[in-house]
């Protein structure tokens, strides 16, 4: 389904019945990244998944984008669906959106889950993002598939799950370059750590022990900054721990929301 919000058409899906949970996906992915968690939660929760601006079937206007804009998309979607409050689960870029949403709309946030994410992009990392964006513009998103899968999954799990690598690789390839570049620009400006003390939502922070992109130290910084936040480091998992360690991830999220 699609709905007009914040000046764009946003693609979303709703399943299940019960208290509302919103799921926000990573860069270079789409809402299908959450198939496993959505199925696990659907018996107890209404699950709202959406494609972030520039991803999936949501509009991909030329960027750069900002987190204020990405949060505005979420708020606009909730407004159009007449949703006042929600639990919020975000992974990677989705976790960055979740943190911003918790700060911008505290009255709309119930419980917060931030997975495989960061609260700050150091200045030295901006050159890396500039290069990634330049490669996408010059060569297309296919050029990012192998390196991205290498960061997102441990080598042993990747080798034993070729069908998942094909599926996630297709999501990366299908990401509009404008969306990747626009969201990449927002990530370059990420600097939230000193603001997170204002988050009042009960918070769970999750990270894979073997995540090279947003390593455990990044999640430790988030958990330290948010009052009362709980940190869980999941063994034998890299960036997309919701897929690589799906049973553990789904249990931790389900128990926390419950």
From TrEMBL:
Positions of the AB hydrolase-1 domain: 20-244
MF-aspect GO terms: 3-oxoadipate enol-lactonase activity; triacylglycerol lipase activity
Gene3D superfamilies: alpha/beta hydrolase
InterPro entries per record: AB_hydrolase, AB_hydrolase_1, AB_hydrolase_fold, PcaD/CatD
An individual GO BP term: beta-ketoadipate pathway
SUPFAM superfamilies in the record: alpha/beta-Hydrolases
Protein name: 3-oxoadipate enol-lactonase
UniProt organism field: Sulfurisoma sediminicola
Lineage: Bacteria, Pseudomonadati, Pseudomonadota, Betaproteobacteria, Nitrosomonadales
């Amino acid at each position: 389904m699609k709905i007009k919000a914040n000046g764009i058409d946003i693609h979303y899906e709703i399943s299940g019945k019960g208290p509302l949970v919103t799921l926000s996906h990573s860069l270079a992915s789409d809402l299908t990244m959450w198939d496993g968690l959505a199925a696990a939660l659907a018996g107890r929760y209404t699950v709202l998944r959406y494609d972030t601006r520039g991803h999936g079937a949501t509009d991909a206007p030329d960027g750069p984008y900002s987190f204020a804009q990405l949060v505005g998309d979420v708020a606009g979607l909730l407004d159009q669906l007449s949703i006042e409050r929600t639990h919020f689960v975000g992974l990677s870029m989705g976790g960055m959106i979740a943190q911003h949403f918790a700060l911008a709309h505290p009255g709309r946030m119930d419980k917060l889950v931030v997975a495989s994410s960061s609260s700050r992009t150091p200045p030295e990392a901006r050159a890396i993002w500039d290069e990634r964006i330049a490669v996408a513009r010059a060569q297309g998103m296919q050029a990012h598939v192998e390196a991205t899968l290498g960061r997102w999954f441990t080598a042993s799990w990747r080798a034993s799950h070729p069908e998942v690598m094909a599926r996630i690789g297709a999501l990366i390839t299908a990401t509009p370059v404008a969306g990747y570049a626009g969201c990449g620009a927002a990530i370059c400006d990420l600097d939230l750590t000193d603001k997170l003390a204002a988050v009042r939502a009960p918070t769970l922070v999750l990270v894979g022990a073997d995540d090279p992109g947003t390593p455990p130290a990044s999640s430790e910084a988030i958990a330290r900054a948010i009052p009362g936040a709980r940190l869980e480091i999941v063994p034998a998992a890299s960036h997309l721990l919701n897929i690589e360690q799906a049973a553990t991830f789904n249990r931790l999220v389900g128990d926390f929301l419950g």
